[in-house]
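Entry:
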Amino acid sequence: MSGIYEDNNRQVIPRWYPFSTANILGDLEPISSTDLHPKSDLKILDKKLLQWQSKKRISDAIDLVGTALILREYSKPDLINTAETILKRKDHISKFGKEIATAYLAGKNRGEIGGIGLDLHGDFHKQQIANLKRILKVYPRNAIVYADLAFYYTLLNQHEKAKRYMEIAIAIAPNNRFVLRSAARLFVHFDDPQKALHYLRSSELAKYDPWITSTEIAISERSKQKPHLIKAARAMLNNDELSSWSINELAATLSTLEAQHGARSKSKKLLSKALSNPNENTVAQAEWLLEKIGQDSLELGKEVIAPYEATARRAFREEDYSTALEFAEKWFYFQPFTSRPVVFASYIASTCFQNHNKSIKMIEDARLISPDSILLRNNYIFSLASIGRVQDAEKELSKIHNIDETNPYRNTVLATEGLLEFRKGNLEQGRKLYKEAIARFKKAQDNRAASIAAFYWAREEMSANTTYKEVALREADALISKNYAKELIEPLRSLKQLGVRIDTKK
């Protein structure tokens, strides 16, 4: 069967992307609500503008636009014209300079950005690494460059290099928000939350920057440890000098904490605060929280950039599976370090649309980054077997190791083994495995998974035209009719239209 994650403990873990994307999304904005652009910074900007206008050196133009990008000063036409000039110049300009100008103009049009995602092909990552290493020759102590190198080496599944470069970034800039949050995400990805927490808690920013405080609490909760910064977090939410943008993830994190302790009223109040000026991660957390706090919909204080996860979750809940698939794909290419979006997308593609080739393509793009995900490999096996690539599916199944009774995906893989036996012609063994998986799911009170397994058992019995097809269809109908898995209602109806009469009274 195709599997899907049951997110029982989603936390507001920081997103991870290159520095240029972090700038576009506003991750680096000042935390103060009263002085977003200190006068001294604006004087520096004016001085650099005069330098560019008098000398007309392209290096001055890049320096000017880079400074404006860091300060997020988009209101001056002279700065916009300078960025456009950099991109129009025909003479030799470094790719880095063009990237700065492109990031600046993209930031200027934050509300107009149509999509942010990653090219997951290895050649692209290698080119980015080569560019960054050239920059290091000029700026050998640039922590941002080391953090971005760690990012691209992670995409190439070169873990040791990624860790080494991130350690260098932290050593150079232990109190840099971008570096700290990137490092935290890297170590969470490599299943070392303790190291992530060590760097966060050791930083001077921990008790003063809500972006760092939120990260410490979220990772602690995710790894079932006691957060150290709850008291500081609550004080921050009552600090009027902090901007609504700077505390949006923190408010969502504390809202999650209250919801998990059954304090719905407090959770709703905090969530409302978070959504007054949210980023996409906060909106996704809010979508996840809705059912837990007994709320039907969200009220956002503004539109957000790249709301891929939130839109995918909402569309799936509203039974708009085309939109759910579209945005689950975007979510994956936006955040490929987690297997959740591609598992979600592959499940929708294969289950709602029987588009196994799309499922296979997405999983193959993700497998280099998440090679150890059992559920990802399970869905790959499922789609391969479903289109008749039985030998390939068997080869992939042999790579699943150490999946004992305590593994949460054991029963899902058991059902997929049942599919494989059906496709190999071993109908009795396939039937036995499916029935065992369904019984196990029911015993665990996982009725959703039982519904999915029952549906695919019925599909295989129908395909083989066995005498068990009516029994299997009745089992699937009994579960799916209770809305345990609404996405299977239409596929089940299609199975029924193949001519088998379901007598639910038998």
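Confidence is low (pLDDT under 50) at residues 110-115, 500-506.
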